[in-house]
Predict the structure of Tetratricopeptide repeat protein.
Amino acid sequence: MRHPFLWTICAAGLAVISACANSEDESVERAIQNVNALDESNLSDVMLTVADPNEGVNYFQRTLKDNPDRIDIKRGLAISYVRAKRFAEAVPAWKNVVKDSESTNNDRVDLADSQIRAGKWDGAEETLDSIPPTHETFKRYRLEAMIADANQEWNHADSFYEIAVGLTTRPAGVMNNWGYSKLTRGDYSEAERLFGEAIRQDSTLFTAKNNMVLARGAQRNYTLPVIPMVQTERAQLLHTLALSAIKQGDTETGKALLRDAIDTHPQHFEAAVRALRSLENT
């Protein structure tokens, strides 16, 4: 009479053991999935930061084939194209991101940025026009300013540059762009002021230093500004100033500045030497 009872107990025990085993298997599987997801996230971060940009492109291309609906992978591929300076390929990649229902206005700004880098200015303007005016970011207004510059809409450009400067804690780059805009318009004194502001914000920004010298040279001011510079930079800026003087017909001043650049440079300054020889032979 006790046998059926024992079989019932055994069957129940086996069911419990089986359930425990299944539960453990599921827990292990979930743990593995979580680890894989974490590893993939870390690897994606590496591919977007320290990895070689072209390796990043290859990684996201492979991953996208297996995960065609994941917007983070689409976005990673687009960013990697930009990092690799493959802008013609970055544009369709960003368009693929923007088509996704989970895309954001920041994605559209990044598309416009890639379009500008690829020389597709009209497309970039259309993209920015599609973004609501309530989306106010530094990058958006910096791009708006660049497009206004390209269209020679100077008042709009100045307005956009001013807004962009107010939306970042690191305005040196945009101030340099604004100064260059003024330089191309022939407003040399205002360009010089903006380049000075850019250098004050970032004393390592050599492009702003060189542009400042161009603005001074355009005003026939052939002395170097009082700004931070190392010896090599000083020689290069003297060379820029010399070329500016020569361009305006002040040849003797240009020669003197070239000699100064050659003497200042800690190594052989081939470009300045070549320019001086050409002038002296002429």
Q: What stands out?
A: The chain has a mean pLDDT of 89. Residues 42-119 form a domain with the Serine Threonine Protein Phosphatase 5, Tetratricopeptide repeat fold (CATH 1.25.40.10). The chain has three domains: 42-119, 136-221, 230-282. The two ends are 124 Å apart (CA to CA).
